[in-house]
Design a protein that fits this description.
Blueprint: H1 4-15, H2 20-27, H3 31-38, H4 47-63
Helix pairs in contact: 1-4, 2-3
């Protein structure tokens, strides 16, 4: 079962019209790997920090 933080990330992606491909590119992951992480299939160390930091950076960049 996916962690709660993944739902928050997916919600922010929808609100800010950020695609999984864009987020994966920002992180440096393959889009399928990001999908596996967000769906709870993979649990790499520090994934929450990495993904949340990247999406927050993208939101800030969007505002500029």
């Amino acid at each position: 079962m996916p962690a709660q933080w993944t739902a928050e990330v997916v919600g922010k992606m929808h609100l800010h019209k950020i695609t999984a491909v864009q987020l994966a590119e920002k992180i440096g992951w393959h889009p399928k790997y990001l999908s596996a992480v967000l769906n709870g299939k993979r649990e790499p160390k520090h994934a929450e920090v990495i993904v949340k930091s990247a999406i927050e950076e993208m939101i800030v960049e969007e505002r500029e």
